Amino acid sequence: MKKLKSLLFDNLGLKLISLLLACLIWFLVVQTGDPTDTKTYSNIKVTFTNTQLLSEEDKVYEVLDNTDTIRVTIRAPRSVLDRLNESNIVAEADFKKLTDISTVAIECHVNTDDTIYSATPSIEAVQLHVEEKATKYVALSATIVGEVAEGYKFNTVTLDQNLIEITGPKSAVDRVRRATVIVDVSDASTNMTANMEITLLDADGNQLNLSNVQKQTDYVRVSVEILTTKEVTIYVPTSGTPAEGYRYTGEVIIEPATVRVAGSASRIQNYSRISITDPVDLTGATEDVIVNVDIAQYLPTNISLAEDGYDGMVQITLPVQPLEYRSYTFSQSILGFENVPEGMSVTTAGGNFSVLISGLDSDFETFDYNNLTGTIDIGKWMLEEDLTELEEGTYEMPLELHLPEGLGQPEVTKVRVVVVKKESGH
Asked: Which fold is adopted by the domain 132-228?
């Protein structure tokens, strides 16, 4: 026994030094072959667990300052580090550990069976903004931009819903006042249908990019109707006659003279004029008759006015002018006879006669009285005088001049007509 103790404890210091040297030599050998090193891995996304704990309290969170994306420094043998990549590193934040100052500690580990000495995150905790969750409905409408192709008109836009539900942090949801879809109709010439992205707007109409606000749907079905346009005229009927001594010229002055209307291509193809069904009354007029008419009320179904901002009012002017009276002298040679009774011969008594002719100044401008002819209708005169037979004699009978359109005879002009029996055999 004494011999064994002597063997163990003799030269104890020397033996300890030898042991330490052996360990040092082993460590140096290991380090020389596979030394320990550190390596930092970037863009590691922190995974959240137990987030339902906030949802159960009807709260939502928002990550601040991108603290859910970190760097992780790994300390391990160099051979292990050479085999690792970002997919091996797991960073987690458990919402069970949410603090009163809205932080959650980050814990890191490495998915490997190799030796890992440490995994250290670049920051200790994820910083959150936690607040009450809010839900509300906002109005959804379309915003039209661009101009349709020439000859066409944007008519209507229809959305398959006019409200959208949004959910998120109360402060963010409160910023949203309405939603819209941007519909670009530039150079459009046909109807359009498409799914279009919904944009959230604030009270001033500015676009909001709120990643923490969820929309019920990100897209809405939009239908746009594009109409064909066409220039058409306006038809105006008249009724009544002006006062004695005045005449309607027959001209219709309309301002604007034409209007542009819009409708589907098939509906507008054969539509050429707007017909005003209520006549403009000229009864007793002594001056131009001027009326303002809303032509929109006379448009057929599915046809509308094409010009934006035009109210459909037109001004209609029917010129009424005083008649002029001019006297002309004619010879008997211009006259002819009609419906002369059988067995009778008629001639004029000879000489010239004067006729008063009425018309507008414009009517007289082209009037050539030298080529004028006239007629005495014997049969018509006999009916008016209630005569069944005509005896020989001299009578005053009315003549009717063959006047051009626009001129008239305001007075009855009579000519002396000589009636004799035809001689036997003639």
From this structure: RNA Polymerase Alpha Subunit; Chain A, domain 2 (2.170.120)
